[in-house]
């Protein structure tokens, strides 16, 4: 291997990749600041919500880090957050694996896509909350219900994005594989999947908040653990400090995980020589 090639590969991430990662993280910080501003303006616009019910970002910060009971509050909320993150990870992995496998089958077999895609979209139109009792009866309360509900939220948007990426594989490469005797699965493995890496990361980023939503709903209605169950208990108990703090913590967690996926995407696409949008 020549020195020039080594240099190009070693510097694949380089200044451009660092600049792209920095812009991405900066936009996320700006989005978070905007969320806090909208939160504050919302409470100012609807004064009837507070101060009994409403809590400002400063109130939440005091509840978690300043008040006398802050250590106990942090232990409770972050303990529940860890459970929710584990549940979200289960749903995320289940949904993404199912979406990748289904998208591959649909791209290889157009008849399968034409037959089952309308059914999938029809099922997606049913509200998750309405399906929860049936899902709980079928799979029980535990890891299975978390995987199913989180997987459902993740599966459908990821399926559409991954199918789009797989379908947009370079036609020239596919033709070359076909000329040399390769079948559809070979073209999928050699051409479609590598070219669909940006779509895979796009699906992953979209699925991160979806997985957290699915986990929270599953905990609220199924497992009675984690932040979902904490929110369920806080409402009737009028524990508004805990309620607002839980919402903020899960929002921050969603942004942080989204940022991690985005940075990994920037690194991988830079190493593969693909443009990061």
From TrEMBL:
Membrane topology: Multi-pass membrane protein
Alphabetical list of PROSITE patterns matching this protein: ABC_TM1
Residues annotated as domain ABC transmembrane type-1: 77-261
One cellular component (GO) term of this entry: plasma membrane
Cell membrane listed as a keyword: yes
GO process annotations (BP): transmembrane transport
Keywords, alphabetical: Cell membrane, Membrane, Transmembrane, Transmembrane helix, Transport
PANTHER family: ABC TRANSPORTER PERMEASE PROTEIN (PTHR30151:SF41), ALKANE SULFONATE ABC TRANSPORTER-RELATED, MEMBRANE SUBUNIT (PTHR30151)
Family: Belongs to the binding-protein-dependent transport system permease family.
Protein name: ABC transporter permease
Native organism: Gordonia alkanivorans CGMCC 6845
């Amino acid at each position: 291997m020549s020195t020039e090639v080594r240099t190009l590969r070693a510097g694949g991430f380089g200044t451009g990749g660092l600049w792209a990662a920095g812009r991405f993280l900066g936009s996320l910080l700006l989005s978070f600041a905007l969320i806090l501003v909208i939160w504050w303006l919302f409470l100012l616009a609807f004064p009837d919500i507070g101060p009994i019910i409403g809590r400002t970002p400063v109130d939440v910060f005091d509840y978690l880090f300043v008040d006398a009971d802050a250590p106990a509050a942090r232990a409770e909320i972050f303990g529940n957050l860890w459970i929710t993150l584990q549940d979200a990870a289960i749903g995320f992995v289940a949904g993404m694996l199912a979406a990748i496998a289904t998208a591959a089958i649909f791209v290889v077999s157009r008849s399968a896509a034409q037959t089952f895609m309308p059914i999938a979209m029809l099922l997606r139109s049913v509200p998750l909350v309405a399906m929860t009792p049936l899902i709980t009866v079928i799979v029980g309360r535990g890891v299975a219900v978390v995987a199913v509900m989180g997987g459902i939220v993740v599966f459908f948007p990821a399926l559409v994005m991954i199918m789009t990426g797989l379908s947009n594989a370079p036609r020239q490469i596919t033709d070359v594989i076909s000329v040399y005797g390769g079948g559809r699965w070979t073209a999928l493995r050699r051409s479609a999947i590598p070219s669909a890496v940006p779509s895979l990361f796009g699906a992953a980023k979209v699925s991160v908040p979806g997985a957290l939503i699915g986990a929270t709903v599953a905990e609220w209605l199924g497992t009675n653990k984690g932040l979902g169950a904490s929110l369920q208990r806080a409402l009737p108990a009028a524990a508004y400090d805990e309620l607002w703090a839980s919402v903020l913590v899960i929002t921050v967690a969603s942004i942080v995980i989204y940022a991690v996926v985005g940075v990994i995407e920037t690194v991988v696409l830079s190493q593969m020589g693909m443009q990061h949008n």
